[in-house]
Sequence to fold (739 residues):
Amino acid sequence: MATTMITPLNTSSRAASRGLSDISIRNLFIIPTIVFLIVFNIFPLIYSLGYSFTDFRASTNAPANFVGLKNYRELLSDPYIWNNFAVTAKYVIVSVVGQVVVGFGTAMLLNRTIPLKGLITTLLLLPMMLSMAVVGLFWKLLYDPSWGVINYVLDLGKFQWLGDPKMALYAVAFTDIWMWSPFVMLLSLAGLSAVPKHLYEAAAIDRAGPFYTFFRITLPLVAPILMIAVIFRTMEAFKTFDLAYVLSTQPSTEVISIRLYKMAFQEWQTGRSCALAYIVLIMVLAITNIYVKYLNKVKER
Amino acid sequence: MRKLVTSVLAGIGLTLACGTSVYAQEKSLTIFWAEWDPANYLQELGNEYEKQTGVKITVETTPWADFQTKAFTEFNAKGSAYDLVVGDSQWLGAASEGGHYVDLTDFVKENKVLDKMAPATVKFYSEYPGNSGKYWSIPAEGDAVGWAYRKDWFEDPKEMEAFKAKYGYDLAVPKTFKEMTDIAEFFNRPDQNRYGIAIYTQNQYDGLAMGFENALFSYGGELGDFGTYKVDGIINSDKAVAAAENYRKLFGFTPPGWTNAFFVENNQAITEGLAAMSMNYFAFFPSLINEASNPNAKNTGFFANPAGPGGEQFAALGGQGISVVSYSNNKEEAMKFLKWFIQDDTQKKWAALGGYTCNKAVLESAEFQNATPYNKAFYDTMFKVKDFWAVPEYAELLQQLNQRVYPYIVNGDGTAKEMLDALAKDWDATFKKYGRGQ
Fold:
């Protein structure tokens, strides 16, 4: 199997005349990537684990002192940090559920022969091609109570989307849904078009209703690819920074990455922020693992 | 193949050789600052210096949002990219204790900087720790929070009559916080899309803190004792509580959604005709008298932060001092530049270009005070400014202030006393953590 994966070297090629073997070529491509990964990802990851047990501050020349689990202990007993986690969890649930419902719904609508289908799909994909910070800035204008378009169109008067502590998080999540539903739609569309037509024909012959067909044929067959979309979006939503940072300053929208940013680069509490980053990393890993387990189960069916 | 490698190496060597020799001949200094108009003025001043001495001055800038991060990243790496930095006053502690700034105490004494500059500016832009007599920078861009107002609204005879009937005194530029609150209430008319006042509320960095300090200092309150780091009984004193309550009251007269406002939004409040009065740094006022950026330019006036109920009058300090970076390779040249920079003539030029000088003689001259509609208010303010903590952990103190003060001011959670008591506890714990005031 492995040998057939690599195309044999053409004996008359330049590479062959220089005497580069398949293995050398493979190494040429892979080693730089691995070195890059180790230097810029793995090494800092391990190094910062060490820092997370110290009181190191990158802004001073003072040596780092080992403080054991103090950073973790203090972080996990800080009510503000817990609030940040609660906000993040709420944000992830609202925005991912919203994106799946809207994205999958749009995909169902598009999964039929309609005129200009290609053009419509492309236009629907536009939001996710924009930069997060730019989206944040112009949604801030759209939401503005004094000159925003949203209040004008919905005739809501001076409703404060981003200023109201209860509404602000939903407003940020809504922007995220607007931006990333097309991503879920795209993946769902791929999944939907792969469902064999004959299953629907068989269901029609058996006089199965539309709900039965949806829950017994469409959903189970699209589920694996939909799960991948959910994993991606959950991870992304968990580390949301730019959108929430640009849109609102209400404490009810301070997701964990904003807190982490402030701790690391405004307060320069390097040791403690490393500890917080590790707590976040472990959480993301745990959640992703649950998803992956579930995904494997879905695929087995 | 070997030939190719040799020739390439030779080429690189030659370029390097040429590069370094050119570099050695031409003296140059790089000054790092945030991206805003005063930085352009400093570049112009630098061009003047180049004409006189042949030393090239380059002012490098970055947007405000990552100014602090970028500067400290460079310091932490002990980088020599910048010879001088025009840094925020709060950085003094972190930058001096971290060894990033060159000690300028001797320079300040030899060149009589203390006599030349407004005393408050040397105290807050240069000295660390407080009252220690150690100096780390030279006041460069003086700045403080002042107020812009709509002259046409204030001078409308109908409004004046209605105001007098309601409050029993004449409508004029407010001299006290009480008057300012009355005026804000008077002009707050949501049905006409007009609001009383625009204040700072942004809690991402020091916006809200600066705004709240304006009320706090004029009410006679203090953040704490800068010498002993005692905060309990000071930041939560009755005066401080009254100041917080007044700031909360002012928030009630702001335009809708004024929950994330800093200098950009507060200038917008005037340019869009949203508010009667707006708090902002003096550095942002030039664009308010420019008709291209403010349609209400002709009708915009300025005043200094008003007094509190006890008659005390102070303002929160902005602005920056210029410091020499310890890791610079051109420290001597940088010192020469500073020597030139503090001369009265240079300071006069600096002011004429649009920089906010801290030079006493220039500030006191009639020429300066009449140059713009806000220079008089700036002069009034610069002799009564106070600032935030400058200890290395100031950002933590700022974050704690934001966490406590924002929910009260903006969302009305709890009471002013509760929130300031909690803040005193937070700050106390932070100072204990860093072993201060023990």
